[in-house]
Amino acid sequence: MTILGIETSCDETSIAIIEGANDFVKVNSNILATSLALHAKTGGIIPEQAAREQIKYILPTLKEAIDDYVKRNNEKLPVHNNYGLELLKHIDAIAVTYGPGLIGSLLVGVETAKTLAYILNKPIIPVNHMVGHIYANWILNGNITSIPIIHYPLIALVVSGGHTDLLLMKKHGDFQLLGGTRDDAAGEAFDKIGRMLGLSYPAGPEIERLAKKGDPNRFHFPRPLLHEKTYEFSFSGLKTAVLREITKLTNNNNISTIPSSLSTQIVCDLARCTQDAIIDVLIKKTLRAANQFNVQSILLSGGVSANQTLRDEFNIKSEKFKIEIFAPHKTFCTDNAAMIASAAYFNFKPEPLNSITADPELYFE
Ligand code: KG4
Ligand code: ZN
Hints:
It contains twelve helices and ten strands. With about 375 residues, the chain is of the alpha/beta class. The strands form two sheets. Strands 3-2-1-4-5 form a five-stranded mixed β-sheet, sandwiched between helices. The protein is globular and about 65 Å long. 5'-O-[(R)-(carboxyoxy)(hydroxy)phosphoryl]adenosine binds near residues 10, 187 and 307.
């Protein structure tokens, strides 16, 4: 089964064509246009600007996705290919992110998907972006010879810029939310603290890099809700603690001048202790859930799961419980359309065109 996926929930515009076969999906094309450089200048995403960029990018991205498919599969396009509509006649369905996300951005993807579904007369499957992140774990990567076995029930941890969610998954499409974040998401904490340190957006990868040179004992930052029974998370206190520490260090209350007055080593130490605090909370809570529900598999997903230190620590700490940790290839941790198409393949539930609307506040039922 071939599915065209469309993802535009935040600042990315992504279109993919995947082939589902039994228990995994193969990516035949995956194109991503990003307005990140624009947002790096402003230190974050300006929703209106993101949507305007996506309107510009969406059709060229579709064309590129089709060209990529043709190249990878040695297919021949009709001469007047009209964005490759001839080729798209052979797909089985269209999958699109309908929430959560920024309303203007979601609308670009949803309306494009509906138009294509109408013209091509194809079924359309609306996908929850967070569910999409989890299904990045079923994407086959490169030349894998042995296919990993994911056991149910399992615990899924979604850690992205907008969400930190812990879920119990009993089978495809069957999710029970155990806890989410009460305030900032893990990725948001990386980004906001990175901003205080003078790093550009998104700061997660840079904090990971700087943390390698940092002293883990230089600061001790709080691990909110770690010892409480709840599976909820809270990271805004961490941000406040880091800010308090750097104003103390620099004797300066003017946040805009702080980064330049911090030494490189202190920035590395702050990065290390921030990352350690976030990873500590994520791992301990996830393993507690895994033990409580007696699962053998944990699936990591979302942009923060691209963090290699997080992955390594998860593997080390889960070993004694004989729990296997899965994480998508790094390309598929951050937002992409292949994961949306993957979720649609395993949860093939087409909806009538007129019932599909963008839902910025969508969560797990
Ligand atoms: O999943 P994603 O692409 O977008 C959302 O759905 O929010 O996640 C983006 C987030 C950003 O906050 C970014 O800083 C974080 O993922 N991120 C990382 C790393 N790579 C991306 N955080 C920590 N370490 C990384 N290597
Ligand atoms: Zn995402």
